[in-house]
Known about the structure:
By secondary structure, this protein is mainly alpha-helical. Among the domains are: 2-56, no CATH class; 68-153. Helix content is 52%, strand content 8%. It is built from 9 helices and 4 strands, in the order αβαβαααααααββ. It has helices spanning 2-7, 32-49, 61-65, 68-92, 104-109, 121-152, 158-167, 174-185, 193-199; strands at 14-15, 55-56, 203-209, 212-219. The strands form 2 sheets. It has a two-stranded antiparallel sheet. Strands 3-4 form a two-stranded antiparallel sheet. A hairpin with a 2-residue loop joins strand 3 and strand 4 (212-219). Helix 4 runs antiparallel to helix 6. The protein starts with a helix and ends in a 13-residue tail after the last strand.
Amino acid sequence: MHRYLMSRGIRNVVLESSSIEVDRRARRAKTDRLDGGRLLKQLVRHHRDGEFLRIVRVPSVEQEDERRLHRELERLKKERTGHRNRIQGLLVTHGVVLKPGRDFLSRLSGVVLWNGASLPAELKAECEREYARLRLVEEQIRGLEAEQRKRLEGSERPELKQVLALARLRGLGCGSAWVLVMEFFGWRGFRNRREVGAAAGLVGTPYASGESTRDQGIARRVTGECVRSSLS
Length: 232
């Protein structure tokens, strides 16, 4: 919707919803007409006073598309962990400890339970199907990692050069450097180091009362420039 309105020459901004003031002291009437009126008043106040509402920086179609690869890779890695845990969880209920390695199927066929019996047929079949899904996910992970390496080889794109530059730092691999550039430094505009920390969820919660001033620890905070973090 934002991109459509902009293409029609209509100035549009995307607001961070948590910055919109809501009266929580009592139950209140809520309709689209009333919500629109309240939002309009807050927009007027924002343009009059400034910095009242937080504006979300919207990436271009190309910038948003560049984040697909590493986000899919992150999701597949979580799925891989789920398949592994599922297989080991099914087996441990029968007292069998067996990790799903490359020779998993041959070792599964030779499993003998504590009483000398073989694994139940349906349990064995489910483990085999789960293992097939695990192998498929692992194959896709290898394919995406190979695609990342291919794009980095001899690329002249500025964001990929940033990835290579970050990857030269000690303790930072290509995978982490890719995420940092595509989610943080490739298209966002940070004004200070606190906004960088906010994007990563590393901003302390301030506490100031009287002569006592301290941080209460790290809290999840998002600024107008920092909408989402892929780091955890």
